[in-house]
Structures are given as C-alpha cells and as structure tokens.
C-alpha cells in the first residue's frame, strides 16, 4: 500500500516526519528542506505542511518534469543562503566622517 | 475516474480570463489557493484536442467543491462570455446536481462593486466581491472565501500571503531560468508545480 508521510512543524523551529496512519514521529530535523528531502527518499507520498499546519495538497501533474522543477526551486534556496552568508560576513563599511 | 471525496473537497475551479493583463491576478489567485491547502484546477490544465472543450469543463467543474469565477471581462468592444457560461454551469450543479454537487461553494468576483448589476442583473442578491484589478485585493478575497467556506483556521492572513507572494514572484524568474524556461512560457501545469515546490520548501 502507498504510504503517506507528513512533514510537519515540530516544537517551534524544527520539522518532523510523521506517518499518516498512526501519527508516529519518524524523525526530527533542524530544517524543513532536510525533512522534505528525507521524506522523499521513502517510497510513498509526501505531504508538506505550512508552519500554521495547513497541509499543502500535492499536485500530480502529467507531462511536467517535476525533478527539474524541484532542482530549480532548490537552487533558489542555495542562492538565498549564499546571499545571507555574504550579508553576515560582509558588514557595510562605516561612512567616512 | 470520478474524483474521490478528498479530492472533491480540496479542489478549487478557477474561472477567469487567460489574457496577459490578467496574468498577475491569476498567479496571485493560484498562489493563495495552494497556500491555503487546496488544489487549483482550470480549463488550461489539459490540452487534449480530442476532448470537447465544454465536456472537459463540465468534468473539471463537477470534480471541484469550490469555484472562483471572475466576471470582470465585459468590455463593450469584445465581451468575453466564457466566464459567465462557466459560472452558469457551476450554479447549475448547485441547483440541479447530485447531493454532493449541491454542497458546492462559489466566489464571484468583479473588478468594480455593483458593475455586475449592469451586465448580469440576474445575479442580484448574490454576494459578489470586487478586486479593483489589484493583486493584494484578489489575495484577500480568495483567502477570506477559503477560510470561511472550508473552516480551516490554519490559513494565514491576507497580508502575510501577499508578502509571501511578492517573495515568490521575485524568485520566479530565476526558477524559470534554471528550468530553461522563459517567464512568459510557463503554462498552468508548470506554474502549479513550481508554486507547490516553492511553498513546500520556503514557507517556513
């Protein structure tokens, strides 16, 4: 039978993978991206939740290269992280008096 | 194959113009529907020329519990009658359909309040929402409709959704570039998948 895994918010800033049937937590992750990637490695359907608990309905669309889109969306996140690190490490110089 | 009860209860039929001027409102609508935990469906999801368009529409409408109908395209030069026709089909389901179809809930939108009284006066007495061709207003009315109809208290407020939508819009061009697509080449099916992936990963 096709199992369903839910990626849900867990105790504030963490994310957990939960099974649909018994609602057991399978693993806890420090980031949502990590939880999604782990859940997708398991055979079955992954349903990702929003921070407020809304289950984002999985859309299965024929004829769309979902792997290419996933990779493109993931790249945006990598760029975001790079920008954040750059901003943290390169503090703007103080204006000359 | 008939839609399961879960699919029916989480599907939203979006009936609106598909022209370039409306594109930004359409994207705002699709984003809000998906962020609220629903699946958007529309006439653009399939391009099977072997299927008669009206039959295809009838099937999609019957598979959605919720309907969003924008009847704002009534310019006198070339009035568009597709939207009122599909609204009529959806209303027909509610009046003459099976018990499941009678549970349908509809949101009717126009750009200006009360303008519909001059174009479809038979709708008098219905609650019609106006969006003034503004993305934030569309997001707010669609969000309020889904929040109230579905009684899902996890759906965030309109301002939060709008802020997230702007973030998504700013990242969409680079997602398209990485997918070897031009921004204006993204079709409905791709938009839905991109939105789903983005929301799943970055709604934190």
Secondary-structure topology with pairs:
The complex is a heterodimer of chains A (97) and B (204).
Chain A: E1 4-10, E2 14-19, E3 25-29, H1 32-41, E4 45-49, E5 55-56, H2 66-89
Parallel strand pairs in A: 1-4
Antiparallel strand pairs in A: 1-2, 2-3, 4-5
Chain B: H1 5-10, E1 11-15, H2 23-35, E2 39-41, H3 53-62, E3 66-70, H4 82-96, E4 105-110, H5 116-119, E5 128-130, H6 135-150, H7 158-178, H8 188-202
Parallel strand pairs in B: 1-2, 1-3, 3-4, 4-5
Helix pairs in contact in B: 2-6, 2-8, 3-4, 6-7
Task: Provide a descriptive summary of the structure in words.
By secondary structure, chain A is an alpha+beta fold. Chain A has one domain. Chain A contains two helices and five strands, in the order E-E-E-H-E-E-H. Chain A has helices at residues 32-41, 66-89; strands at residues 4-10, 14-19, 25-29, 45-49, 55-56. In chain A, a hairpin with a 5-residue loop joins strand 2 (14-19) and strand 3. Chain A starts with a strand and ends in an 8-residue tail after the last helix. Helices cover 49% and strands 11% of the residues of chain B. Chain B has helices at 5-10, 23-35, 53-62, 82-96, 116-119, 135-150, 158-178, 188-202; strands spanning 11-15, 39-41, 66-70, 105-110, 128-130. Chain B has a five-stranded parallel beta sheet with strand order 2-1-3-4-5, with helices on both faces. In chain B, helix 2 (23-35) runs parallel beside helix 6 (135-150) and helix 6 crosses helix 7. Chains A and B meet through helix 1, strand 5 and helix 2 of A and helix 7 and helix 8 of B.
